[in-house]
Design brief:
The complex is a heterodimer.
Chain A (H helix, E strand, L loop, with lengths): L2 H23 L2 H17 L9 H20 L14 H4 L4 H9 L4 H13 L3 H8 L3 H21 L5
Chain B lengths: L1 E2 L8 E2 L20 H12 L5 H13 L2 H7 L24 H30 L13 E6 L34 E5 L4 E5 L8 E4 L9 E6 L11 H13 L8 H16 L4 E6 L5 E7 L4 E5 L6
Antiparallel strand pairs in B: 1-2, 3-7, 4-5, 5-6, 8-9, 9-10
Helix pairs in contact in B: 4-6
Classes of the chains: A mainly alpha, B alpha+beta.
């Protein structure tokens, strides 16, 4: 990959990676740090990576870095332990997309990540599996369970009947 | 269970045992629970159902048509990216090394050229002081003597007049009345001005000092004589810079050039330096310019006495 291709990767995928990480951990500063670390890592091995594979490489590297950060700070949020009662009051008047993003925060980190990769980036199950290190079947399971959890959240908050 | 007769490789042969109520374990699509249907509907919304899965789903829907709407609602569960942008993303963009070198070379060369140009252009002007006025630029002076009044004679200047010339009214020059003094000797009085450096002494009269009257000066306006100003742009900049500072005193060329270099360093991040070498007596001797690409030393010419 050339310098020009590297810069293209920054312009083209920088915001995508940031969005994915930010929505996964809900911390803009840490998301910025992770994206910067990821691109620094990419820059160090810029000559070894082909441009056509850089997007997948970026997401994989950023995801792994994010998991490291989450494990390090023990910030994994479980559905069972997440207190979302404070959100219910404002959900009825919110846009569905916003509500879904808030519902996303109630999901476990892995489910959140695979759904974001699926919805934001349109990755196939196999590609999501390569990024997250899961099997294709596991990816499907996490996505389907995540969808059900999102729907249950909407019903629970009376956004949907 | 029986063991075959080949004792070298003994193998177990499965017996013909059967589960007595296997039929009760079979399920139909109608036996799918609500949670299972949710997963099925989620898979359908993802277009991930297999052929058999679709047929099962159709069977369920056929028995409970209201579930189709429920299953379709899963298609709305799509997250769309919010308008979130990473701050400082441009800082991750790398500049090719060749461009960096070219840019540094170009900027440094331009900066050095600007400094050299500014220095050599401003240097002659820096020597001019506000007090220096050329005689031809001053108005003519007329001396009018009144009879009966004793002359007021100021003490002579400490500085010795360079030369004395016979009094010619039209040639008498001054800057202001206070600048004009009379130097009295035994039988000669010399009118001279202190403002002019060097002083232009004037032989006022050859009469005796007691016969002198007070001298009143009256300026006779004359047609302005314009001189062609050289380097008027640079002089204008210097004058403006002086006016912006204290005392309307024009800035020296070194000060202007040094300020230019510091500004360029701040803008471009370069490391150029302009240093003035001063002798033991306190007079500037030379100016040294140094940068990563260019360095030179220029001697300072004295333009003032």
């Amino acid at each position: 990959m050339t310098v020009r291709e590297y810069n293209n990767a920054v312009r083209e995928y920088g915001d995508h990676v940031y969005r994915f990480i930010y929505r996964s951990i809900k911390d803009s500063h840490r998301a910025c740090d992770i994206v910067q670390d990821t691109y620094e890592k990419l820059w160090r091995c810029v000559t070894e990576i082909e441009y056509h594979a850089v997007k997948s490489w970026l997401f994989t590297s950023a995801y792994n870095r994010m998991i490291d950060v989450i494990r390090k700070e023990a910030r994994i949020v479980h559905v069972e332990s997440y207190d979302d009662t404070s959100l219910y009051a404002e959900e009825k008047n919110s846009d569905l997309n916003e509500v879904l993003h808030r519902a996303l925060e109630t999901l476990p980190a892995v489910q959140r990540s695979v759904i974001l990769l699926r919805d934001y980036e349109g990755y196939q199950y196999r590609e999501i599996g390569e990024i997250t290190g899961l099997s294709e079947a596991q990816v499907k399971t996490y996505i389907f369970r995540g969808r059900v959890a999102l729907r249950n959240y909407l019903v629970k908050t009376s956004v949907w009947q | 269970m029986a063991v075959n007769e080949d004792m070298d490789y003994p193998r177990l042969t499965p017996p013909d045992d059967r589960y007595p109520s296997a039929g009760s374990l079979f399920r139909t699509p109608h036996d799918i629970t609500g949670e299972q249907f949710d997963l099925l509907a989620a898979a359908r919304a993802e277009d991930s159902l297999s052929e058999e899965g679709r047929s099962d789903f159709d069977i369920i829907i056929s028995s409970a048509p209201g579930r189709l709407e429920y299953a379709d609602s899963f298609r709305q569960l799509r997250l769309h990216p919010m308008d979130e942008r990473m701050e400082g993303l441009d800082s991750l963009i790398k500049t090719p090394q060749a461009v960096i070198i070219l840019r540094r070379t170009l900027f440094t060369t331009l900066a050095a050229a600007a400094v050299v140009l500014a220095y050599f252009t401003l240097r002659p002007f820096a020597g001019q002081q506000t007090g220096i006025i050329k005689p031809e630029a001053l108005p003519e002076l007329t001396i009018v003597a009144e009879k009966g009044i004793s002359p007021v004679v100021k003490p002579a200047l400490k500085q010795k007049p360079i030369a004395a010339q016979p009094l010619t009214v039209s040639e008498t020059t001054r800057k202001s009345e206070s600048d004009v003094v009379l130097q009295a000797t035994d039988d000669k009085i010399t009118l001279m001005t202190t403002a002019l450096q060097p002083a232009i002494p004037i032989l006022a009269s050859l009469t005796r000092s007691e016969e002198l009257c007070p001298v009143n000066f009256r300026e006779i306006p004359v047609a302005a004589t314009y001189r062609i100003e050289e380097n008027w742009i640079v002089k204008g900049i210097a004058s403006l810079s002086g006016a912006a500072g204290k005392g309307n005193k024009p800035s020296g060329s070194y000060i202007i050039a040094d300020a230019c270099i510091k500004a360029l360093n701040r803008v471009l991040g370069s490391e150029m330096e302009l240093k003035r070498v001063i002798s033991d007596t306190g007079n500037p001797v030379s100016v040294n310019f140094s940068s990563s690409l260019l360095s030179f030393s220029a001697p300072v010419k004295k333009t003032s006495p």
